[in-house]
Amino acid sequence: MPRLRMVSYLARRPGTPMILPLAVLAMLAAVLFSPAVLLWIGRRPGYDWPLLGNVGQTYGAASAILAALALIGVVASLALQAREAKAAREQALRALHTDLLKMAIDDPALLECWGPIEDAVDVEWFRKHVYANLIVSHWQLMWEVDVLTAQHLEVLADQFFKGHVGRRFWAEARGPTLVAADCPSGWYCFYEWPNYGYPRGRLSDCGRQSLATWQWQFRVESAHYNLGSGSVSFYYYDTRLFDIGAANRVRGDASQAQDNDAVGLAAPT
Known about the structure:
Among the domains are: 90-173; 187-267, Sandwich (Gamma-B Crystallin, domain 1), CATH 2.60.20. 52% of the residues lie in helices and 16% in strands. The chain has 6 helices and 8 strands. The protein has a 4-stranded antiparallel β-sheet, with no helix packed on it. Strands 3-8-5-6 form a 4-stranded antiparallel β-sheet, with no helix packed on it. Strand 1 (187-193) and strand 2 (197-203) form a beta hairpin. Helix 4 (120-144) packs across helix 6 (164-173).
């Protein structure tokens, strides 16, 4: 039975576009034959033509209102067409940009056309950077056409920025920042983004501690030491990554050389 209803619905669809032309033809016929109808009404006894004339004048005011509404509809239609044309041009430009990036990913020799590359390691990272750019551009397009909700975007971004590639891409793509280290006095702080970008964690205890206790493992991208003396060392298990302390209070970018792989820290007593 559901299948029969679906077929019946599809069979009725071709007749739907005929409704508008038929309505237009009916209106034209009413306008063309209205003088004959009025003449027939006028020959009948008992009609007050001054009253009918006043009614006609009232209808003229209504016609002016309808004409104004029709003009507004035409203007809105033109504005919508202009917006759609702009969206089509933007889509064409994005498609061209995507094709250029895909060519660079498929052929590493073309990556040099986007800027100088010093060694093979940079080539490999550049390919990841380009691919990450395509992912973020895809999000932007879905957001602009209202097919991506804020909740879905949060889920995608959370998964994307959990990885080292996503965090490093965003640190490079968003450009330099003027944010200053802002760890309160008496604490040492660590940040999830380079150049002291929030979220921020802070501690003041001495001794060796695991960052996993506060779910900060593999997340430290910058750090600030704001105690009067001493120092803190960040570790990848038993491997020492970097230090901050009274002599070197800030580390603005720990995303290079895998320094953001810290899973623990040690503050000497």
